[in-house]
Amino acid sequence: QVQLVESGGGLVQPGGSLTLSCTGSGFDFSSYGINWFRQAPGKEREQVAGITFAGRTTNIPDSVKGRFTISRDNAKRTVYLQMNSLEPEDTAAYFCNIWSYGQNYWGQGTQVTVSS
């Protein structure tokens, strides 16, 4: 079955950086676009990055553009989210996601906390 496993979260000071990883199994990884979402307490889940199956096209919303970068290594079945210049407002659980045959699949999430 489809599995997505996020890692790399943690506590970081404002202005710091983190790189999140999402490793997928149970599906043809190199054929799927992968997305990163985040959800802060009391807020809706929002997309923060997306990358096409071959990695040629990425989508970064204005809210994090210039600070977040998404990339992938299909040989390692892993997508990365590089986050720089982190702000307290980036504190959230971060999830990776694929859409397959009409169904959304999510990982368990990794917590990012930006605080001094």
Strand-helix topology:
Elements lengths: L2 E5 L2 E3 L5 E8 L8 E6 L6 E6 L6 E2 L8 E6 L4 E6 L8 E9 L2 E4 L3 E5 L2
Parallel strand pairs: 2-11
Antiparallel strand pairs: 1-3, 3-8, 4-5, 4-9, 5-6, 7-8, 9-10, 9-11
List the keywords.
single chain; 116 residues; mainly beta; 7-stranded mixed β-sheet; 4-stranded antiparallel β-sheet; 11 strands
Question: Looking at the structure, what is the overall shape?
Answer: globular
* Count of individual helical segments: 0
Strand content: over 45%
How many strands, what sense, and barrel or not for the largest sheet? 7 strands, mixed
Structure explained in plain terms:
With 116 residues, the chain is mainly beta. The protein has strands at 3-7, 10-12, 18-25, 34-39, 46-51, 58-59, 68-73, 78-83, 92-100, 103-106, 110-114. Strands 2, 4, 5, 6, 9, 10 and 11 form a seven-stranded mixed β-sheet that branches. β4 and β5 (46-51) form a beta hairpin. The radius of gyration is 13 Å and the shape is globular. The N and C termini lie far apart (40 Å).
Structure at a glance:
This protein has no helices and eleven strands. The chain has 116 residues and is an all-beta fold.
